[in-house]
Specification:
The complex is a heterodimer of chains A (301) and B (421).
Chain A: E1 2-13, E2 16-27, E3 30-35, H1 42-49, E4 57-62, E5 65-66, E6 75-78, H2 90-100, H3 105-118, H4 134-146, E7 152-156, H5 164-179, E8 183-188, H6 191-197, E9 200-205, E10 208-214, H7 215-222, E11 225-232, E12 244-249, E13 253-258, H8 264-274, E14 276-284, H9 287-295
Parallel strand pairs in A: 3-8, 3-9, 6-7, 7-8
Antiparallel strand pairs in A: 1-2, 1-4, 4-5, 9-10, 11-13, 11-14, 12-13
Helix pairs in contact in A: 2-3, 2-4
Chain B: H1 2-16, H2 19-44, E1 51-57, H3 63-69, E2 81-85, H4 92-104, E3 110-114, H5 118-121, E4 125-128, H6 134-155, H7 160-166, E5 175-177, E6 183-185, H8 188-222, H9 226-230, H10 235-267, H11 275-279, H12 284-311, H13 315-321, H14 323-334, H15 336-341, H16 346-351, H17 358-368, H18 373-401, H19 411-419
Helix pairs in contact in B: 1-10, 2-10, 8-10, 8-12, 8-14, 8-17, 12-17, 12-18, 17-18, 18-19
The chains are: A alpha/beta (301), B alpha/beta (421).
């Protein structure tokens, strides 16, 4: 049974259509990924779910109720634009956020300490927020959105600003929350992360849904097998070859998809004549590539 | 409601424990003590040494009676002035010169020189190391003056005692008629001072707490905490919590000041017999009006300042954009002298209905004269309606504008926020 049900929402700012007829559902015990480049409409969609923006059209239902502000206590929201009060002590800040979700003071304080211990921040509890490093502040921020044990967790770019160690720590926490039956909605422009974490994904671009569904079938259906080559030399000729459908060329790495029916050997022949090939493999294309195919542009720009 | 209380608590704690608040709260009482107690104390502690003054009286009119005229005593009961009449046949210049060197060597404190021509020239001279003790100067001057005048009166055939009686000053006692037929002794100085101090405190606190709302909104936007807070509360709850929290900070400050003021007037009353008495003569009614007008004025101005806070992105921008609002607060100060002279003039009465000015001007009018109940009620109603309007506008602007970061909003944009559903 879906915990969050978005049906045909749209939002315009003046003549600019930020979100255009978007629908999806998020279920308990799963991670739903909202993917797309910056400016695709992810944050506007989330702000509408959080009742911070009102949709021009469409409905949002949460826990089988039309979205309203009392439901906010059951959501854990980590906004993309996030910050803390710099002069507050870490523990006080967390207790304050807990109390804003109507947690009793003692409980908020106890839960905050548990989380701080878990994320290795126990010694920082009496420091002022501004004395913490960026990464530590980010972790405090994540604790703040999980403290009140929400049923729906909305994380907008949760990994930005985290080093690889902490990124893994947060990934583990997300997966653990999923196992414990929480519904998690994750918005990111980092496709690789989404591929590892999400059960279902939605790709949006310019406010419109490009693709949505369960992750595995998407990879099967849309991911044509592609060829990945590591090389040195000038590979700019590759995109002009007759058998190439799409080419994604970097300085010493390229990823191409061939037109149906064309021969891999012919392609390899061209490569051997023009550049120095270090490695060559064919594989299923990534979400990143699927997005490029469908949206016609690169998501990381 | 619980959420608003949580926000109020945070705002309150953060501001009350800030250095700025503590400093301002402590400085004002120190200032109050400074202007009331210290002058009184200083007079108490004035030098207990008698002054030795040599008198050179060439006219022969003064020296004889000066002893009986200068009867001032020190606190220990000893006479304040020890007078030595110097008689000499030598040339005056020489005599004065030797006396001056005595002063220089600190053997005597001063020389009072009365020339032979005093009756015509009306001039006497006083030499001393310290001539800035105006009380001593005045005492000496008066004493000699009285002796000379008495002498002239006698010479003209008048009895100085009768003349003295005839020319006694008439003193004007001013009594203020208050509501309910109560009367109390009051005069221009006490009226002016109590009104002026209250108006100044109103003006200061309205600016301080209004702009602190504005700055705190800008800070929340720039450190991006605002959306985190909006994850659990409505924009209107956040705004209400901030305004109420800062308002309570202001009231706390007033409470501390009142306690200090009461303590001073109780504990220090023996010192403050002169000005202090009328200064501290503040009725409870005045205090209640004061708090009422602070609270109402605060709501009005914090609403206006918070609109500026939402529309701007930095303190500097906000300072410029809030100039017109600050100028509105200055207007009552500009008309303060007019107000004290005639609190019921048509200009002042008119201004006391305009909501931007009424918190200060109506309060001052109530303090100084007795405006009709209808006038007060009308001005209160206009003020409260305006507060509701401003807070409603601020809430709209706040809801739409709080997440618009990065650039300063212009007027058309603010109008769009207000019209948005």
């Amino acid at each position: 049974m879906p915990i969050l049900n978005i049906s045909h929402i749209s939002k315009s700012y003046g003549s600019y259509k930020a979100v255009d007829d978007v629908s999806f559902t998020v279920e308990r015990g799963s991670v739903y990924g909202v993917l797309g480049p910056n400016g695709a409409g992810k944050t506007s969609t989330i702000r509408m779910i959080m009742n911070i923006l009102l949709p021009d059209e469409g409905n949002i239902t949460l826990f089988d109720t039309a979205m309203n502000d009392t439901l906010k206590n059951r959501i854990g929201y980590l906004p993309e634009e996030r910050g803390l009060y710099p002069k507050m002590k870490v523990l006080d800040m967390l207790v304050f956020l807990g109390e804003l979700h109507l947690m009793p003071r003692e409980e908020a304080s106890q839960k905050a300490l548990e989380w701080l211990r878990r994320l290795g921040l126990e010694e920082q509890k009496d420091k002022k927020v501004e004395e913490l490093s960026k990464g530590m502040q980010q972790k405090v921020q994540i604790i703040g959105s999980l403290l009140h044990d929400p049923e729906l967790i909305i994380l907008d770019e949760p990994f930005s600003g985290l080093d690889p160690v902490n990124t893994n720590l947060i990934k583990d926490i997300i997966l653990e929350l999923k196992v414990s039956g929480k519904a998690i909605m994750l918005s990111t422009h980092m496709m690789e992360t989404a591929e590892k974490l999400c059960d279902r994904v939605m790709m949006i671009n310019h406010g419109r849904v490009v693709l949505q569904g369960a992750l595995q079938p998407i990879l099967m259906d849309h991911g044509k097998s592609s060829i990945q080559v590591e090389y040195s030399g000038d590979a700019s000729f590759v995109s002009g070859l007759p058998m190439v459908e799409t080419a994604d060329i970097y300085g010493n790495y390229l990823e191409v998809r061939l037109k149906e029916g064309s021969s891999r050997n012919d392609f390899i022949g061209h490569l051997l004549n023009n550049i120095e090939v270090h490695s060559f493999k064919t594989m299923q294309s990534s979400l990143n590539e699927i997005f490029i195919t469908l949206a016609g542009e690169k998501p990381n720009e | 409601m619980n959420k608003i209380i949580t926000i109020i608590k945070r705002e309150y704690k953060e501001t009350v424990f800030k250095k700025g608040f503590i400093i301002l709260t402590l400085l004002i009482p120190v200032f109050m003590i400074g202007v009331t107690i210290i002058p009184a104390l200083l007079i108490e502690l004035e030098g207990d040494e008698p002054l030795t003054i040599n008198v050179v009286d060439e006219s022969g009119l003064v020296a004889g009676s000066l002893h009986s005229s200068l009867t001032d005593t020190l606190r220990n009961g000893q006479p304040k002035f020890i007078l030595n009449s110097i008689r000499s046949s030598s040339v005056t210049d020489q005599l004065v010169a030797t006396q001056k060197s005595l002063i220089e060597k600190e053997l005597i404190d001063g020389l009072l020189y009365i020339p032979a021509s005093v009756l015509d020239s009306n001039r006497i001279e006083f030499f001393a190391r310290n001539v800035s003790d105006f009380q001593t100067n005045r005492t000496l001057n008066r004493a000699v003056e009285k002796i000379i005048i008495d002498h002239r009166l006698k010479n003209s055939g008048f009895d100085p005692h009768i003349v003295q009686r005839l020319i006694t000053d008439i003193s004007l006692r001013t009594i203020k008629i208050q509501k309910g037929g109560k009367e109390r002794d009051s005069d221009f100085t006490s009226e002016y001072f109590s009104t002026f101090i209250f108006v100044l405190i109103l003006y200061m606190t309205l600016i301080v707490y209004g702009t602190s709302i504005m700055r705190s909104i800008i800070q929340e936007k720039s450190n991006k905490v605002v959306e985190v807070i909006l994850a659990s509360v409505k924009p209107i709850q956040l705004m209400a919590g901030k305004i109420l929290g800062q308002g309570l900070v202001g009231l706390t400050q007033y409470a501390i000041w009142s306690i200090v003021a009461i303590a001073i007037s109780l504990g220090g009353s023996s010192f403050i017999q002169m000005k202090g008495n009328s200064l501290m003569n503040i009725s409870t009614v005045t205090m209640i009006w004061f708090v009422v007008y602070y609270v109402l004025g605060y709501f009005l101005y914090s609403g206006m300042y918070s609109i500026i806070g939402v529309a701007t992105t930095s303190d500097q921008e906000a300072q410029q954009a809030s100039m017109p609002i600050t100028l509105l607060l200055v207007v009552p100060l500009l008309v303060l002298t007019t107000l004290v002279k005639n609190p019921d003039s048509s200009l002042i009465t008119g201004l006391s209905y305009i909501p931007f000015f009424s918190p200060i001007i109506m309060f001052a009018r109530i303090n100084m004269s007795t405006p009709a109940a209808m006038e007060i009620i009308l001005s209160l109603v206009i003020l409260i309606v305006s507060i509701i309007g401003v807070i409603w506008l601020a809430a709209k602007v706040y809801r739409m504008g709080i997440l618009m970061t990065g650039k300063r909003a212009n007027l058309p944009e603010i109008m769009r926020w207000i019209r948005a559903k």
